[in-house]
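Q: Joint fold for the lines below.
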Amino acid sequence: MQEILQNLLNGIAVGAIYALIALGYTMVYGILKLINFAHGDVFMLGAFVGYYAGRWAAAHAGNGHPATYLIAFGIMLLSMVVCGLFGYLNERIAYRPLRNSPRIASLITAIGVSFLLEFGGQFVFGPDPKFFPTLTPKRIVHLGGIVTTNYQIIVLVVAVAFMALLQFIIYGTKFGRAMRAVSYNFEIASLMGIPVDRVISTTFVIGSALAAVAGILFGLSYPKIDPLMGIMPGLKAFIAAVLGGIGNVPGAVVGGLTIGIVEAFVGGSQFSNFRDAIAFVILIVILLFRPSGLFGKYEAEKV
Amino acid sequence: MKRLPWFVRDAIYLAVFVALLLAAAWGLAALRFPGIAYYTRIIVLIGINITLAVSLNIINGHAGQFSLGHAGFMAVGGYFSAFLTYFYFSKLVDRYPSAQSALLVAALLAGGALAAVAGYVVGLPSLRLRGDYLAIVTLGFGEIIRVLILNIEKIGGARGFTGIPHWSSFFWVYFFAGITILVSWRLVRSAVGRAFLAVREDQIAAEAMGINTTKYKVKAFVIGSFWAGVAGGLYAHYLMYLNPSMFTFIRSFEIVVMVVLGGLGSISGSIIAAIILTILPEGLRMVKEVLHSDKDPRMIIYSITLIALMLTRPQGIFGRRELWQVLPRRKDAVPKKERDDAAA
Amino acid sequence: MRKIGFLAVVVLLSLSLTGCPPKSESGNAGSNADNAAGGDILIGEYSSLTGLQATFGTSTHQGIIMAADEVNAAGGINGRKVKILTEDDQSKPEEAATAVSKLISQNSVVAILGEVASSASLAAAPICQSNKVPMITPSSTNPEVTKKGDYIFRTCFTDDYQGPAMADYTAKDLGIKTAAILTDVKNDYSVFLGRDFERKFTEDGGKIVAKASYSNGDSDFRAQLTSIKPSNPQILWVPGYYTDVGQIAQQARDLGITAPLVGGDGWVSPKLVEIGGKALEGCYYANHYSYDDPSPVVRNFVDKYKQRFGAKPDGMAALAYDAMHVLADAMKRAKKLDGPTLRDAIAATKGFQGVTGTINLGPDRNPVGKKIVVEEIKNGQLVVKGTVQPK
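A: Joint structure:
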C-alpha cells in the first residue's frame, strides 16, 4: 500500500512537469493546428538559461547558494522572458511565412528548429551534462509512510499555479476570448477585428514561457541538464497532450499526470524493461475508444 | 510502343533498367580513385532512402494518411530478413553459393511481408483516427516495435544484431528502388491510386462515391510498409549490423522530411529530396576542414538549410507535380500524360 | 519513352555523384602514397561529437589529440608527425560506418581509433576489417567487437571481465550477501554488466533480491528505487554511465535507501561527484587507475589534461589517450605502415605502460591482465578501496 502511494506521488511529480510542457503543445495546437516539435527543446533552453543565471547569482551571492526564493523566482522570470522571446522569433521567422501553406510544411520547419536547438545547444553549451545550481536547499519531507522532498512540493505548487493562471487567461480575460475566437476560425476572427497575428505571437510567447517554467522546475528537481534533455520529456508531453485531447488545456494536465503515473507504476514493476512501450500501448487503447483523446471533442465530419 | 499492353511495356522498362543497373554497377566497381568506396556507400544509402521516401509517399502523399512510424516498419523488415539469412539462409549459401541472390530476394520479400502485416495492424486504427491522432498512434507503434526488439535476446537485444551477411549491393538496392518507384507510379495511375487521391482530398465525398475508404487507407499502409520492410532488409544486409537505436522516431522524422520536402504526392520530388538530404550532411563534413575549427557546425548548417528550404518551397520542391511537369517543356505535357495513362 | 527517360535520370543522377572530383587529400586509395612519401601519418578517428553520446565522444577526442600532440612533441613516429582526422558520427551506428568508410577510402588513413559505444564500433569494424586497416577501440567493452576480425583491437577491459570481477570482489572480499540490480535497458554496456554480475554473484553464493531497469534519457528513477527499497539489499549494482548515476544516488537517498551503490568504469568522471554530491558517500566503482596514483605516466596525464582542458579527465579520456599511445608505440616498432605490418605490430603490444594500467594484447586482441582499481567516495574524495588482480 505504502509502495503504491509512493509511486503515485512519484508519478504526480513527474507528471506535473509533463503537464506544463504539454500545455505549450496544446495551446499552439489549439490555435494553429500545428504540432510544435521544437517545444521540448525550448524546455531545454529554459533550463540552460536557469543554469547560467543561477550560476551567476550563486557567484554573486557569495555563499554559494542564492538562497532566497525571491532570487529563484527572478531566475525563473528571466528564463521565461528569454524563452518567450525565442518563441516569438520562432513563430515570426519559421512559422508565420508558412501560415497559408499546407500545415505539414510548418511541421517540417518545427522539426528543423528542433534539430537546430539540439545541435546548436551541443555546439554552444557543450555536450557534457551540467549540474543545475541548487536554488534552494533540499529538504526531505515525510508524509505518513511516504517520502517526498520540498522540491517535489514546489514543482507541484508552481505547476498548479501556472495551470490555474493559464486557465484564467483563456477564460477570464479579453485576450483569452480573442485566443479562443482565433482557435475556432482565424479568418472570421480577423474579420471581427481581432489582431490575429498578435494573438498567435502571444500564444507562442506564453507557451514558450511555460516551457521555461518547466525547464527550471526540472532543473531544480533533477539537477543534471544537457542539450538533448528536451527530447524524451518533449515526446512524453506530446503524448500527454494528445491523450488529453490536443487543444484542450485541462486535457493536457490530466494527460500529463496520467502518463507520469502510468510510467511510475510500470517503472516500479517487473515490466520496467517495457516501460516506454506501455505508455504508448495505453495511449493507443485510449485513442481507439476515444478517438479525440480524453477531453477532446469528437467532431463529426461535416460535408 | 504505346500500343503494347502496360505489363509488356513495364517488362521492357524493367529489362532496360536492369541492363542499365548492371552496367552502372560494373562501372562503379571498375572505378578507382580515392574515396570511391565512400561515394559508393553514399550512393547505396541514397538508394535505400529513395525506397523509404517513395514508399512513405504512398501513405502520406497519395492516401493522405499521416504516418510517423516508417522507421518501425523498416525495423521489422530489416530484423526479420536478417534473422532469416543469419540463422537459416547463410548455411544454405555455404553449400550452394549460387543461391545467394535468390535467397537474398526471398529474405527481403519475407521481411517486406512481415512489415506489411505490421502495416496492416497499424493501418487498422485509421478506421477511427484522423490526422494528428493517427500520426501519434503510428509513432507509438514504431516505438513499441523498437522496445520489443530491444528485449528479444535472440536477435541481439540492446547489443544489436551482428554478423549479418553482406549480401546487398548497389545493384540490389537500386533494383528494388526502381521496382518501388514503378509500383508507386503504376499505383497512382490505377483505380486504387484514384481511390487514394479521393480519400486524401475528401473522405466523405469518396465514401459517397462508393469508395470503401477504410479498405484503401489500410491498403496504403500495407503497400507502403511492405517496401519500407524491403528497404530495411537491404539496409541490414548492407550495414551487416542492426541496432534498435537506428529505428527511433527521429529516423521516421527524417523520412517524413524527405517526403514533404519533395512535395507530398510527388514521386520524383521524394526521390530528389532523398538524394539531397542524404548528401547534405556528408557534403557538410568539409565545412570543418575549411574553417579549421575544432568544433563541427555541420549539423547546425544542416538544420538551417532544412528550415530555409521549407520556407522557400512550402509546397515541397515540386509541389504535387513531377519533375518533368515542372521543367519548361511541351505545354501539353500534363494533359497528354493523363490521357495516355487513362488509355493504358 | 518518358518513363525510360525518367528512370535513366534516376540512375544518371546517382551516377553523376561518382563524377565529383575526388578530394586529393592523399594519394591513391590503398597504397597510402602520402604515408609512404614521408608526409604526416594520417590516423582516422570517428567519434560521437554530437548526439546522445557526445559527452563521451568529446572526452575521447580530447584524450586522443592530447596523446597525438605528445607523440609529435617527442619527435613523432621515426621523424614523421601524426595527424588525426576526426569525423563525427552523431552517436549513430550507421553514421559511424559511413564516417569510417570516408576516412579509409577518401583520406587513406593508416589506422582507425574509435568508438565509445559498442554499437558504433560493431557497425564500423567490418569496414576496417575488409579494408585491412587496423582499428583500436578505446572503450567499447562489448566482447563481440573484437570478434569481428583480426584487425580489430581494444585497450579497455570487456564486460565479461569487469562484471564478474566486481561480483567476486563484492561477494568474496566484502562478504556482501544481497544485491539489487538497476540497469539501463537501452544501453548494451549496462545490460551486459548487469547480467554478468548477476551470474557471478549468484555463483558466489550471493542473492539478487530485486531487479529494475530505466532507459537512457530518464531523469526520474524513484519508481524503480521504490520497488527496490522493500527488498532491502546490501548494495545496489548500477552499471550505468556517470550521467545517470549521480541522480540515481540522490533519489535513492531521498527515498531512504542507505545501501551503497556499486558500479563499473562508466562512472569514471569528475562530474559524478559534482552531480551526485553527498548522496554518493560510501559508494564504490571499478576504475582503471586512480587520479592520485604517483606513477609518472598517470601524473603526467592527469596534470596536463587538467591544464589543457580545465577539468580532470574522465575514464573515456584516459582510455582514448592510452589507445593513441598504444597505436603510436606499434607504429614506431612497425617497419612499414601498411595494414598487415601495422596490425602485427599492434598485436605484439606487450607490457605497455599506460595510464589505465599495463596493456598486454592477448591472442583475441583484447588486453589481458589489466587490474581493476576499486575507488570509493569518502568525504567527497576518491579513495582507493582495493584492487582486483586478474587471475
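Q: Anything notable?
A: Chain A touches chain B through 42 residues (CB under 8 Å). The longest helix of chain A spans residues 2-32.
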